[in-house]
Design brief:
The chain is α/β, with parallel strands linked by helices. The chain contains nine helices and 28 strands. A hairpin with a 2-residue loop joins strand 17 and strand 18. The protein is about 25% helix and about 25% strand. Helix 1 packs parallel to helix 8. The strands form nine sheets. The chain has a five-stranded parallel sheet.
Length: about 475
């Protein structure tokens, strides 16, 4: 019998647990350890943040589902890793600490045969002075509770605008190295449409602020898109959308401090500027959780497991941007030092950025970190689960592989909610990490498989995906037929 422990119950952790439980006999234990007892469909946080969905529509409790499906569960957070065990325990284990109930604060050793680290990112608001959701008129949509608070504040401002108040709304990234520009892009388009729906658009100045060196970079070095019968840069597409909606933009901006209604930032040109606002939604930096790891003699071996996020089968050799290669990216998400540990989704350490790194004239890095989206998270979680199943069944070779350099991703960005007046910006990219050797004339990506569309159909598709993936996450009949 094997015991597979999964840390985290987000997209990667939940997908891995579901596939492992479906494919392995009940002789094997699948155990999920997560401090959050709810599963949330994160892409729909955007709609919670504009009041068009309630939190209960995008989440459900995990313990009843896991009990029904035969998945063990502990509501706890991991604190440290012991991949060799210790003096008292010969098996590898993680230390966890319970976060609720009678056991709250109690630590426990959780042993494993195979470990999947799917803890995702830490939302590092503390890396930007004053950026704390719900304070200084700045908010977040990174969790459903954050999104609820954002809507409450935005709705209050809208009501004031109905009484004639002029307002400035600032949406984008809240740190010089933030990722997840796509979520901020979705939110600003939805907010802009909600202002129109409430007939207060003429009272609002809506501004995009981001660490991208140009619009449409999205941490992916931009894209060359098939757009209808034309070929268009992603920067041109986003600029077209913003101009059509009267959205202003500030780019190449590293936000470094938030005060009450004021965002301070540094530009790539080395200037220090500020922007006032009445409401802001700023995506924080993402970071690893600061986990520590120890060997059996209790010596620190953190550098064998972590480089911020978890080390996997990537090439982490420091080298100039000109020498970066698509081959640097991992394929199996297996830790090189401990072959029974894997880290799919957002938990693995990327070998380098995707966008060309840029530094201000003052020496400050102002450049997006690699995007970490739901589709690759699900795909990599499934291949990790399949590889563990193969190993358990006696096949030591890892046959299931998927690099972000040969993997595509579809992003359906909501651009406004509504069955007849909604809109979506659909961008499909192949591959995620550009391969400049294979596609030298099209910015490292394959035209035809990298394309963009704008329209009502995109909204319908995103709404359909919302219900499809909630269905899948609840492990309803034939859920596995829905692709990652």
């Amino acid at each position: 019998m094997s015991k597979i422990v999964i840390l985290g119950a987000g997209v990667s952790g939940h997908v891995a647990a579901a596939h492992l439980r479906r494919k392995l006999s009940k002789n094997h234990e699948v155990l999920v350890v997560s401090p959050n007892s709810n599963y949330q469909w994160i892409p729909s946080n955007i709609w919670v943040g504009i009041g068009r969905m309630k939190s209960k529509e995008i989440l459900f409790p995990l313990p009843p589902l896991y009990k029904k499906k035969g998945i063990s569960y502990k509501q706890a957070k991991v604190t440290s890793f012991y991949p060799e065990g210790d003096i008292e325990t010969t098996e590898p284990f993680v230390n966890v600490e319970y976060v609720v109930g009678d056991k709250k604060g109690v630590s426990e050793k959780v042993t494993y045969d195979y470990l999947i680290n799917a803890t995702g990112p830490k939302l590092a608001f503390d890396m930007t002075e004053g950026l704390n959701p719900g304070t200084n008129k700045a908010y977040s949509v990174c969790t459903y509770s954050h999104a609820e608070h954002a809507w409450n504040a935005l709705n209050e401002l809208i009501q004031q605008m109905k009484q004639g108040k002029k307002a400035k709304i600032l949406i984008g990234t809240g740190h010089a190295k933030s990722t997840c520009q796509g979520a901020a892009f979705e939110y600003i388009l939805n907010v802009e449409q909600e202002l129109r729906r409430h007939n207060v658009r003429e009272n609002a100045e809506v501004i995009w602020i981001a660490n991208e060196h140009q619009l449409g970079d999205f941490g992916m070095d931009g894209m060359l898109l098939s757009y209808g019968n034309n070929i268009m840069k992603s920067s041109e597409m986003v600029e077209m959308v913003f101009e059509d909606r009267g959205i202003k933009w500030i780019i190449g901006a590293g936000v470094n401090k938030i005060e009450d209604g004021v965002a301070h930032y540094e530009t790539l040109e080395g200037e220090y500027k500020s922007e006032t606002y009445d409401f802001a939604m700023l995506i924080p930096a993402f970071s690893g959780h600061g986990f520590k790891a120890y060997d059996k003699n209790n010596s620190d071996i953190t550098d064998k497991l972590f480089k911020g996020f978890m080390l996997v089968d990537a090439d982490y050799t420091p080298k100039p941007y000109e020498e970066w290669s698509v081959q640097d990216w991992p394929e199996t998400y297996q830790n090189p030092s401990y072959k029974n540990i894997f880290a799919p989704g957002i938990a693995f350490a990327p070998p380098h950025a995707i966008s060309k790194p840029r530094v201000s004239k003052n020496g400050t890095i102002i450049s997006p970190a690699p995007p970490r989206t739901g589709m690759p998270s699900g795909i990599t979680a499934k291949l990790v689960a399949d590889n563990i199943i193969d190993i358990i069944n006696g096949n030591k070779d890892l046959h299931h592989k998927g690099s972000m350099g040969n993997m595509g991703a579809a992003c359906i960005a909501s651009a406004g909610y509504g069955m007849t007046k909604g809109s979506g910006v659909s961008i499909t990219t192949f591959p995620i990490v550009p391969d400049y050797n294979k596609y030298p004339d099209t910015q490292g990506r394959k035209l035809g498989k990298t394309f963009g569309e704008i329209g009502l159909a995109g909204h319908w598709l995103k709404l359909a995906l919302h219900y499809a993936f909630i269905f899948k996450a609840k492990m309803k009949p034939f859920w596995w037929l829905i692709p990652e």
